[in-house]
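#lab-general

N.A. 3:47 PM
ok so I finally got the sequence cleaned up, no stray characters, all 337 residues accounted for. can someone with queue access submit it? mine expired

B.Y. 3:52 PM
send it over

N.A. 3:53 PM
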Amino acid sequence: MSGTRAGEAPFHIGKDVKAGYIYDVREKIFVSKFAGKTDLKKRNGDTVEITRVHTPDPVTTEVLGANEPVMSEISFEYLGMQMKRYSSWFPLYGHVVKTHDDDIFGMTMDSVKRQAAASAETLGIAVINSGTSKFYATGTQRTHVKDYLRAGLLDVQQRYLETNEAPVIEKMQKSTSDWGTESLDDCFITLASHDLANDFRNLNGFVRVENYGTKKRLPNEIGTYNRQRVICSSFMKPLLGGGATLSSPEQADIKNTGGKADVYRIVTFGAEAFDFGGLQGEDAMDIIVHNAKVSDTDKTGNKGHVAWEMWFGGMIKQQKFISRIEVAAKTDSKLAA
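B.Y. 4:20 PM
back already:
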């Protein structure tokens, strides 16, 4: 993401807005740090083509004498990803700016950045939640779910990724002003709701971040189970009432809506599992500041605004490199018991 238009704001304000906006938004977006990146060139339609390469089969035929080695072929698959445009704006009224000592402009910019970051993260989470590999805490489908997270589910999920040779994550995009990546110890990333944090912490074999020592903690990381670094995110929303119908005693223990268990998704992925993209160039993520000024349509120069705009597309590139578990969560009274 890059690029910011200052509109009619003074140059120094526009420059500061650009630097702060890009940095703050990137810092608040987590899931995109692990995505592949395929941007859309301007004036080239709204769809980009992603190339997926299939690994050739192993070669077990010995080369004897003057014989030629076995010829292998690289198999490619082209996947289309559509970019879509998202935007919003905030009014910036002249009379508010003139009559308040507060930093109205600064507070408005903070709101803009938070909304843009939350929008990008929400769109990204929706992509990774759409994977086809899934395991249920109860039964064989979502409407059966009413059991809590248990270690065996995480074991099954990790075995699925390892059996399919999902590459471990060794780096992620930086959220600092320095573009590039930073190294991580080999791992898979697991994303879950904060409502499940206590369930993770109570698993046998779970290592809490408090016991990491010198190991660097990721944003909102609560610990590690086997090779999975567990991140809790407020963007991992439950599917309200998506699970099994509960008896009255069960409703007292399981978070539910209308007597049906709320379903929580836990997503684990390796490297190269999904791809996000935007618009290339200065308009990839944009902010526009329009100062209030006197005009035929604004007689006293009262109506200004701040707006943001971005392009986003996303897709799961390798279904075998990403998987999810669907579980129930304990009620507050159950946690406090």
